[in-house]
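so my prof wants the structure for this chain in the tokens format not the other one, which i didnt know existed until like an hour ago. anyway here's the sequence
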Amino acid sequence: MGKRLLDYDPLTKTHQYLHSSSDGEYVIESVQDAEDVLEFNHRAAGALNKKQDWWFIGSIPIQLCQQWAQEAGVKVYSREWMAIAKKKVQLPEFRKLNPNNIKL
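here's what i got, hopefully its the right format
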């Protein structure tokens, strides 16, 4: 069975596909185009004013939030997830999520 499109969310630019895995199980795969989120983070990084009380760190694509929660076995946006996200955005591979490299 090839990939079949189940749903598309234009707000988050997320596609959901149904396909079978190599062991014959059916899989629902979510794929998000995060280019707009990364571009937003890049533009917002240039507008950082460190004299303000609140600093914008960056946005995280929803699919990445769900992936981190699934890997850790926690609920998205729970206290446990927040601790994981704070560590993840400091890693070099997620540099575009925290373009000003603000330490949390």
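also thought this was worth mentioning. The mean pLDDT is 86.
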